[in-house]
Amino acid sequence: MKAKLIMSILQMAGMIVLFLALYGVFLVSCERRIIYHPHKYPEGNWNSSSSSVSREDVHFTASDGVRLHGWYIPSAGAKATLLWFHGNAGNITHRLGNIEMLKPLNLNIFIFDYRGYGKSEGEPDEKGIYSDSQAAYDWLVKVKNILPEEIILFGRSLGGICAVEVASGNSAAGLILESVFPSAGKMAEKIFPVLPLGGAIKSRFDAISKVPDLKLPKLFIHGTQDEIVPYKLGRELFSVAADPKEFYDIQEAGHNDTFLIGGAGYFNALGQFIKKVVS
């Protein structure tokens, strides 16, 4: 009787292990769908009359020939230009409200869609979005003749990984990382704690090994109630970053409402940092 019970337990354990293994294989096979949630044109609010933001339609090309789209939003007398790397969902139209709230900071803003998002061609993957990010930086410097010492790299969530990648190979006045995670492996541990997927997934998004070498000024921003990228992961990334650096936490803010919950204090933190590093 005891032997049968042990055998039943072993069989059940084996079934659980097999299920988890198959589930892990399924997740790895769906990696791209899990990571990227693009809204392709015409999804989004593309009606220019619905916003007070005056923007220039920009088309540029990544090094591998993929045609990309973005908006350049000038501000009279601006002394700094914000190069915006958005997160993994939606497209540039979903950032219009946030862009409008940045007007008092008097910044030029260049926001673009990665391949497969909005009006940009192609399909996203890690190598591709890095190439897109570099192409956006190059467009600012080579076409708009913006000096690197006037460029602020601003990355939110997955976009922060792209901002780190660009900062690793280019000059800029400063780097702002908002709601950013240390690596794909760290996020896999958080999302699937019982499955060791960190080594199985192809995407690395390895910011944590790069920020110790970045000497430009850095501002880290994170909501204390972030439900997607836990606050402690943002702190972990900050802890290994090289100086100069500073951290601004937003009490009660989640992942997508930092600028709404943060309010005036949030925008003041951005403005003070930008003024300091550009002047």
Compile the SSE list and pairings.
Elements: H1 2-29, H2 31-35, E1 37-38, E2 56-61, E3 67-73, E4 81-85, E5 89-90, H3 96-101, E6 108-113, H4 126-142, E7 151-156, H5 158-169, E8 174-178, H6 184-191, E9 218-223, H7 231-240, E10 245-250, H8 258-278
Parallel strand pairs: 1-5, 4-6, 4-7, 7-8, 8-9, 9-10
Antiparallel strand pairs: 2-3, 3-6
Over the alpha carbons, how many angstroms does the gyration radius reach?
21 Å
Sheet with the most strands: spatial strand order: 2-3-6-4-7-8-9-10
How much of the sequence is in beta strands? Answer: 15-25%
Largest sheet: 8 strands, mixed
Structural class: alpha/beta
How many domains, as an integer? 2
| CATH architecture assignment of the largest domain | 3-Layer(aba) Sandwich
CATH domain fold name of the largest domain: Rossmann fold
Termini distance?
80 Å
Mean pLDDT: 89
Per CATH, the class of the largest domain reads Alpha Beta
What is the β-strand count? 10
**Global morphology:** globular
Low-confidence blocks of residues:
13-29
Fraction of residues in helices?
A: 25-40%
Provide an overview of this structure.
The protein is α/β, with parallel strands linked by helices and 279 residues long. Helices cover 38% and strands 18% of the residues. It folds into two domains: 1-35; 38-278, 3-Layer(aba) Sandwich (Rossmann fold), CATH 3.40.50. The chain has helices at residues 2-29, 31-35, 96-101, 126-142, 158-169, 184-191, 231-240, 258-278, and strands at residues 37-38, 56-61, 67-73, 81-85, 89-90, 108-113, 151-156, 174-178, 218-223, 245-250. It has an eight-stranded mixed β-sheet, sandwiched between helices. A two-stranded parallel sheet has the order 1-5. Helix 6 (184-191) links the parallel strand 8 and strand 9. Helix 4 (126-142) packs across helix 5. It is globular. The N and C termini lie far apart (80 Å).
